[in-house]
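Posting this for the archive.
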Amino acid sequence: PPPEGWIEVVSQTLAACGLSRDVIAHTPQEWAAPNGGDELALTVLIERRPLWGTPREPLPAPDGLARDRVLAALADRALAYSPPTGFDADRVLELDGTRSDRLDIRSAAVVPIVELGRWAGAVAGLVEGSTPERLQAGADAGALDAGDAASLTEAFELALELRIAHHVQQLAKGATPDDRIETASISPLSRDYLRDVFRAVTAAQRRLRG
């Protein structure tokens, strides 16, 4: 077992790095308890990167009622972000009809696809792996249409490319990177690709709702 006070030590180290100092420790039984904790505690079992187990007590995979709760929570998260519908001149057209001169590439494309991948991977029993790997596992398990999985994978790669390019440009100017891209700076070809991204996400969300 870890030594006494280890949570405080880890918390202080995280804070010194400028990160959240919150540390949560559960036994495997507590993590997977079907009636314990909340949906967030269960869904993080699907996103293993911020979690560590031990050789003696590896992290569990949700099962039974706990798995049902995880899948329901992940489905809700996958539907929580609605991508824009397209572009109107030099503005992005949001689902509610509003227009903006900046596109939040993270919330419009990256996050919805990541969440769809988490849900699809969880349905397939995959608790680790990249977003494309989770989308493919979901397609193999029948959770996603194979065409949707391929479209979402391509859309994810494009959205990441745009996001990283935007970050690099901001860093080159000495600015703090964010995810809000000026729509006037997006080329017509990239806008066409982004429309396809929005359509791919919307189509997958529609099928998930159905």
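The longest helix spans residues 146-172. The helical segments are 6-16, 28-32, 39-43, 64-78, 105-123, 131-140, 146-172, 188-209.
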